[in-house]
Fold this sequence. Notes:
Blueprint: E1 6-14, E2 23-28, H1 31-43, E3 63-68, H2 88-91, E4 110-121, E5 127-143, E6 150-155, H3 160-164, H4 168-198, H5 213-223, H6 228-236, H7 240-260, H8 266-269
Parallel strand pairs: 1-3
Antiparallel strand pairs: 1-6, 2-5, 3-4, 4-5, 5-6
Helix pairs in contact: 4-5, 4-7, 5-7
Amino acid sequence: MSVVTTVRLPLFPLNSVLFPGLVLPLNIFEERYRAMMRDLLKDSPSDPMDPDADPAVSDEPRNFVVVAIRDGHEVAPSAAGMPDDVTTKEAGAGPAAGFGDDPIASFHAVGCIADAATIRERPDGSFEVLATGTQRVRLHSVDASGAYLTAEVEVLPEDPEEAEDAGAEEGDGSAEAGALAEGVLRAFRSYQKRLAGARERSLTTGAELPDDPSVVSYLVAAAAVLDVPTKQRLLEFPDVASRLREELKLLRAETAIIRHLPSLPATDLTRQATSLN
C-alpha cells in the first residue's frame, strides 16, 4: 500500500481552470490575496548580494494552488449596505468569503500548482502577478483559519499506471499517446480554421505547435473554447492518452457544430469567465 505524501500551500480559487505549462496573469486586489502575495514575497526575498536584482522576480519557487470554483464567488461579496469596491478586510469578511461554511465543497477536487515568477506590488497595495501552472494536485483539506485559504494537497503523477508498469507496457503507452497527439493536433488545426471562419477573422495557425503528447494535451485543453466543467474534466483525466482521446472527440464535435453555425457571433464563441482578481 503506497503512502500518500501531501503538502500545504496557499489556495487561490478562480472561475477558470489552470493547466500545467500554461501562463496565468493575475490582478490581485482583494486583501486576502494581497496577504498571500506578501507572504510569497517574504518567503523568497531577492538576492542581497545583487543590488540590481528585481524583488518582483524570483528564480525560487513561489507556489500556490489554483482550483476551479464549483459553487461560489471568485470575488467576495461586499457587506450589506457597503459599496462594491470595499475590500474583503474592510467589509469584515474572512478568507473563505463567498465559499460557504465548508469551503472545500465549493471547489473542484483537482487543481494545479502555480509558480509565481513575477509578483509586482503597485503603489496602492495591489499586485500584478505572472504565474505558470506546474503540476496537478488533489485537494485533501482546506484551512480557513489564516489570512487566506490554504490547502493540503497531493501531487498527482501524470501517468500513474505507466509509472507502476515499467518496460514494454510503458513504451506501448507512450506510442499510443504519440499517435493520439498527432491526431489531436490535426483536429485542432481544423477546429482553428473553422473557428476563424465563424468569427470572420483569421487566427494564427502558422505558429509551431508542440509534439510532446503531455504538452499537446494541456495546450489544446486550455486553447479550445470549452466551458469550465469540460476543461475541469480534461484536467482530471489520470493519463495523457485518456485526455487526448477525449479531446479528439470534443474537437471533432465542436468543429461539426461550428461548420453548421457559420454566422454564430464571435462573442458567443469566445465567451469565457474573466478573473477579477
